[in-house]
Structure formats: C-alpha cells, structure tokens
Amino acid sequence: MKHENKMKFGDFILNNKALFILTFLIIILSCSSPVFLTQSNIFNVIRQVAIGGIVSLGFTVIMASGCMDLSVGNMLSMIGVIIALLAKIEGMPLIVACLIGIAVGIICGCINATVSTVFNLAPFIVTLAMSQVYNGAAHLISNGKPVSNLPESLVTVGQGYVGIIPIPVIILFAATFVLYLFLAHTRIGRHILAIGGNSAAARVSGVNVNRTKLIAYVIMGACVALAAIIMDGRAASAQVAAGAGMEMDAIAAVVIGGTPLHGGYGNMVGTLIGCLIVGVINNGLNLLHVSSYWQMVGKGVIILFAIILDSQSTKIMERHNKGKMGAKAA
Amino acid sequence: MDNSAKTQVLKMQHITKLFPGVRALDDVELELKKGEIHALIGENGAGKSTLMKILLGIYQPDYGEILYKGEPVKFHQPEDALRAGISMIHQEISMMPNLDVAGNIWIARERQFMKKGLLDHKAMHEETKKLLDKLEISLDPYAKAKNLSIAQLQMVELCRAISYHAQIIVMDEPTSALADAEIQILYRIVRRLVREGTTIVFISHKLEEIFEICDRITIMRDGKYIKTARTDEMDRQQLIALIAGRELKDLYPKEPVVIGETVFEVKDLKRDSVFEEISFDVRAGEVLGFCGLVGAGRTEIMRGIFGIDKLSKGTISMEGRPVEIRSPQDAIKNGLGFVTEDRLRLGCIGKLSLKHNMTLSNLPAYCRAGFINGRKESRASADMMGRMAIKAYSDKQLISQLSGGNQQKALIGRSLLTNPKVLIMDEPTRGIDVGSKSEIYKIINDLAKKGMAVMVVSSEIQELLGICDRILVISHGRITGEFDRENVTQTELMNAAFKQAEHT
Q: How many folded domains does chain B comprise?
C-alpha cells in the first residue's frame, strides 16, 4: 500500500517534470539574485522566449503527428523579410501585410507536406532541403541586406504593451491556449495524435493520413509566420539570418516540456514551460554575470538532461506499469 | 536404413509454456532420431513454432526438459542452441543484402579469418567454397545476397547451419516460396545432409511433400502433442483427421437467427498475384466464415474489400448499389467495418487511451464544428465498454496496458461505434484467453441477431463450424469450396484448404 502511494507521487512528478524543473529553477534563482523575481524581469524573460515559443508550439503539433520540420528557422527569416518589405509599402495596412505573411507560411507548410507525401520521402530530408530553398529566397528577396525603418504599427507588436503586459506575451499565451484546445479537443487534433501514435492503424480506422499531415505542417507554417511578425517588431528590422538554427531550440523546448519525439502525444502547456525553462536559465545566467559562451554550453547541457530524464522516466513508467499488470494477473 | 536402429538425438518431454491467459504448450513431447527427416505438422496456433522457439533457446519452457544426445540441456539464449549444433532456417530469410555469400555465412564470426588485424578474404571465401562443394551447391562465394533468388538464399542458410556444425536443422515452410525445380534441388541437399547424420525437422503444410520426403511425422493440436508415426504407416486421410479432428465441443453459443436479404456482394475481385475470381454475398443476420491456411489470401481479400489495398478489378455492392471504395474512410462511410488480425500494428494506437481508441472511427458523431463534445464521447465510450464487457479500471487507461482479449474487444468496439451494416472480423480470437473468446462469440451472435452481416476469417476450423452459417474456403487466392455448416465436416474443410488449384 505504501509502495503504491510512493509510486503515485513518483508518477505525478514524472508526468509533470517540466513544471517541477521550472519551479526548482525559479526558487534557486530567486535566492541567488534579488533582481530575478521582479515584474520587469519576469516579463522580460517571457518576451524573450515569445518568438521561439510560438515556433515551439507549432512544433509540438508537428511532433505529436510523428512528423518533423527542419525548415522552420530559415522559413522564419524569409517570412520576416517578406512581411517587413510589405509593411513598408506606402498605404499597406499592417493587417494585410501580416495576413499575406501567414499565407506564405501556410504555403510553405503545404509544400513541405506535399513533397513528402507525394514522393514518399522522409520529412527530415525534405524539410532540410526546403530549409536551404527558404534561406536562398530570403537572401534573394532582401538582396542580402536587413530591412529596417519599419512602420510604427509593426514595431508596436513586438515592443508594445497592453497595460503592463507586453504584447508578445499576450500573443504567446493566446497561441498556447488556442493550440491546446486544437490538439486536445478537436477532431483534427485527435487525428494528429492518432497518426503520430500509429499511422497505419489510424488509416485503417478511417483517418485521412495525408490530409492530416498536411494540416499539421500548415499549422507549423502559420505559427512560424506569427513568430516572424513579432520578431520584426521586436528587432524593429528583418534580418536575413534571424531565424537560423531556431528549429534546434524549438525541439529542445518541446522535448523538455514532455512531448516525445516519436509522436502520439503533445503537451502544449509543457512546451510553454519548456520555453520558460530555457528562458529562465538564460536570464539567470545573465543576472549572475556568466559569460554568454558558458550560456551556450549550459543550454546544450539542459537539453541533454531533459532528453535523458525523458527516456529514463519512460523506462521507469514501463517497469511500474508492468508491475501493476503482473499484480493484476496474479 | 532401418529407422529404429537410428539413435535418439533429441528428446523434449513434458514441455509446457504459459503466456498470460494462454497455455501455448501443454505437456508436449518430441523425439528426434539421428539422420532422419522429421515432419512437424499442425494447424495454425497448434504450437509448432512455440515448441521450436524453445528448442532454439528463444523461449524458456515453464516446465519440462530437453535431452540432447542423452544429456539434459538448458538453452538460455539462441547462441547456446547454435553452439550446441541446433539451428533454424526461418520462413522469412533475413540476409545482409550488400554482403556476399561468404560474408553472410560467416557474419559475426570473422575473427577466425583475421590475420594481423585484417580480414583474410581469400581464406574466408575458400572455406565458403568448401562448404558449398560439400552440399554440391553451385554458387559463387562472391555473389552478393541481393542478387540471389530465394531458393539460393535458402541454400546459403543451409551452409550457414552446416558451418555451425549443426546436428539438428529446423526448416520452417522451406518450399513455400520455391518453384518445382528448386524444390527438387532442396530435397537433394536435404537428403545428402541426412545421409551424413544431420537431423532435419520439416515444418510444412504441404501434405504431399511430407509424404514424399519425411521419415516420421509428429502432429500437434491446440498446444498438445497428438501422435508421432512413420510416414509409411499413415495415409493422407488419417493425417488430416489427426490434424483437425476432435469432438465439436459446445462452447459456441450459436442460436438460430432469421436471415434476411443480401446486404453485401462482391463480384470477381482480383488483386494481381494475390487472389482472383473472388465472388460471394452475405445476407443480413448471416455469419459467413472464411477458412484456409495462412498465406491463402483471406486477409488480403478483406484488406482489398476495405480499401486498405488496391484491387486490380472487381465490384463491390452494398444493399444492391455498387460502391467505390478507395480507402478505409470510404469503406466506413459505406457501412463497412473491419477488425484487423494484426492488433499491434494495424489496430491499437498504443499511446492513446482506451476511450480515444474506440471513438476514433466515429469522431464526427461527437463533434460540432470540429470540436469534440467530451461528454458525448465519454458516454459512447462507456456504453461500448459495458457492451463489450471490457475489463479496465477506466477508459482513460492506455490501451497498451490492457490484455489481448480486452484490446480485441476495444477494436471491435471501435468498428461497432460506426454502426456498420457489414462487419469483417479477421482472426477475432487469435491469441486470446478462453474466457474472452467465448465473450466474443457471444458478441458475434448478438450482432447477427440484430441483423448485421458478419464475415469471420479464422484459422480455427472448430471456431468456424461453431459460429458460422456458411463457410467459404480459400486456397492459393481462390475460392475452393463453399459449405453450409449443417452438412460439412472438418475433413472436407481441411481438404479444400489444402487443395492446390491447377496452375493456369
């Protein structure tokens, strides 16, 4: 009986390990630095991670469906450039520029998905190749030069506030909520989890696997576009290499947050927490005046730690569940 | 050579193997003599491969012992059996396609050919040539595995077994993928091996083959040992009777059902090289059984009907109207349901809960504007859980944690939630405990009473005779018999299942 209780608490920790890690970090950093737990610092952290965070949220959908998208970083740079250039056009309403940007994101998602399914290629390779295409496109469109002097309206999206809360923070939380609802409570969200869990079985059950994959990639594209809008605003410019390497951070946050790499399960809130963990650690190391090079090392170590913890916790869960089943059979 | 004079090389006795809920082997014995070709025969699920896996060290017996050359042995892992001289040639031969014959034979044992840290290819290939010559096989040791035919790959496997100084070689359905000429070559090699004292165990469904080449036959049924006899002391009819026959026990709750109009009809279904000229119909309230051996094509026919695989030709009609089925989605929309035989790979989505697994095919019914109504879904799931008597402490449990029987019921539940008019069940009770089996039979009966047309594919003839109204027999991709349950015997069904249609 006691053993069962101990395992229940252990279960709870393993299922919510991201939250525990975050809490643990917050406690430690609050003690180490008086500046950490202030309103301005907290909002700063969240605003830092908003861009990567929205990409990570889209990535959660991709991972839950068992797919992969390595083109998001360069896609972000390209869309950032497109939106910036559009926004600068005389008389162009910001909303139209943004909608066109999102449309571009959706088209990129369609391309990623369609090339994989039609030619039956691993998405890993297809998106890797498309990544270079988007990179080239970004350079072509911008002539290799950053786009600056962006209109006030666009800059406000990245740097403005609603009351005391920065706009990117609002967008981040809104996106988390919407995508959580999508994955957990819609039919298509359920289909995405099904194909990620076992796409052959999903197909036999009547799920249109190809169409579902397409939707996952389209959502990813739309998220990337949304993140690009915020990034343009925050930096007040669009840089050609702004998003490079972002897919790595996204994967890290998703895995830390508890979504497994192989699909079938997606923890949207966990991803948000994963982003916060990375943001908090970066912020903490900054406040403690640790060199930025050590910060790079630190980030890698955290990702490793999270993945190891994830695999070990799966093992522990399996052993525990086998024990449960064995006891039942006896 | 007089069989009785040969010495005993292997004796397995009182072998019992238990799996959760299933007694796979029950007090089985097997005796092999040195230098004989011994057939191991039985229906699907009789326990042949489980017994061989124990012999090869892949499984451990729960009870029983193995005496090898007079000494008791315990094989804890396949390497132990290999080193002792017992090896197996599987039905699905796995080779490294990019390595050559020599490389495949000596894989993981290259150390004996190492000279000063480098692999001596010449020595390895010479040794290989010696093996090939010993069996009078004309193969080039440098030939790449990916360029060899299945027959040639089998010969490479035989060489590999010999290189382990195998005294007992188990061959699982060795001629199922061979043409006649190649079969003769295989027989020649096998006879040669046997002359030199190797013992061969032949697992085969081809009765003609067994009578042609085997010295003795051991028959198994339902995990039990039935009999061992000399081939020349038995005839085909006796053999079939032993493989199939026993009293039809009354564990099938078949009640009389009023059978209605034709609900489902297929004409001239064909899938190139897999099946052809498949035509039949099913009526409301009728249970139509599909009998046949593994590989006969029954599952493939069902997959073709349900839109999982593409048909080369043929028409399908639902309640008189022809329907176009290009995917499982189409099939479900048209009132078909399908419960797969492959629970693990095509059935259960392990990471999803029992509830989510069951409702997957029917989600639109619980949705409004794309959003799932949690309460509707939970109600449907709870209802079905009760109807199927699924034992789990909550439908939020992961389906992978349920027993095989409960998983099977969940998959049936998934199909039933879509309210099909025609339900296809492929091996619905495979690998399931007896208790769950009879519950599933009851479910099938209830469905028939409610007017559903049910098609059941099964490899257990007893089961088909117990629950079906009519039985079709499939062999080599064609219908070789159609019987009413009232007038047919197990023997007739077995005969039709073993029948090899004339090659056109």
A: 2
Q: Provide the residue range defining the domain that includes B187.
A: 3-244
Instruction: Give the residue extent of every domain in chain A.
Output: 22-310
* Cross-chain Cβ contact A198/B367 below 8 Å: no
Note the pLDDT tens digit of each residue in B23-51.
789 999 999 999 999 999 887 667 888 89
Looking at the fold, whether B283 and B199 belong to one and the same domain comes out as no
- What is the per-residue pLDDT across B358-411, written as a single tens digit (0 to 9) for each? 999 999 999 999 999 999 999 999 999 999 989 888 888 889 888 778 899 999
Query: Contact, B278 vs B269, CB < 8 A?
Result: yes
pLDDT of residue A12: 67
How far, in Å, CA of B440 to CA of B174, rounded? 35
Shared-domain flag, residues B88 and B192: yes
Domain boundary among B244, B271, B296: B244
Averages of pLDDT over each 10 residues, chain A, 330 residues: 55 73 86 84 87 96 95 96 93 93 97 94 94 95 91 91 91 96 96 95 96 97 96 92 86 87 90 90 83 81 78 69 43
CA distance B306 to chain A (A): 8
Contact list in B for residue A329 (CB cut-off 8 A) is 20
Kindly report the CATH number assigned to the domain that includes residue B141: 3.40.50.300
Same domain, B475 and B386: yes
Residue B254 lies in a domain: no
Cα B89 to Cα B308: distance, rounded to the nearest angstrom: 31
User: Judged by CB atoms within 8 Å, which residues 270-289 of A form the interface with B?
Assistant: none
Dmax (CA) for chain A in angstroms is 77
Of B327, B349, B364, the CB nearest to A264: B349
Are B351 and A200 an interchain contact pair (Cβ–Cβ within 8 Å)?
no
- Rounded alpha-carbon distances, angstroms, from residue A162 to A156, A170, A171: 10, 8, 11
Are B290 and B474 in contact by the 8 Å Cβ rule? The answer is yes
Question: Min CA distance, A295 vs chain B (Å)?
Answer: 36
Beta-carbon separation of B360 and A193 below 8 A? no
User: What would the two tokens of residue A52 be?
Assistant: 């990567």
Q: Does B234 lie in the same domain as B325?
A: no
pLDDT tens digits for B336-355? 999 998 888 899 998 899 99
For an interface test with B, give the residue of A8, A181, A187, A205 to mutate (most B CBs within 10 A). A205
Per-residue burial over A144-176, b = 16 or more CB atoms within 10 Å of its CB, e = otherwise: eeebeebeeebbebbbeeeeeebbbbebbeebb
Q: Does residue B324 carry a pLDDT above 90?
A: yes
Is there a single domain that holds both residue B192 and residue B287? no
The verdict on residue B249 lying in a domain is: no
B255: in domain? no
ipTM, interface predicted TM-score of the complex: 0.85
As assigned by CATH, the class of the A22-310 domain is mainly alpha
Whole-prediction pTM: 0.75
Contacts of B371 in chain A (CB under 8 A): 181, 185-187
Both B123 and B184 in one domain: the answer is yes
Is B35 within the bounds of a domain?
A: yes
Do residue B287 and residue B426 come from a single domain?
yes
Query: Are residue B431 and residue B325 in the same domain, yes or no?
Result: yes
For B98-112, the pLDDT digits (tens) are 899 999 998 888 888
Cα A290–Cα A295–Cα A301 angle in degrees, nearest 5: 130
pLDDT grade for B163, boundaries at 50, 70 and 90: confident
Alpha-carbon gap, residue B480 to B472, rounded angstroms? 8
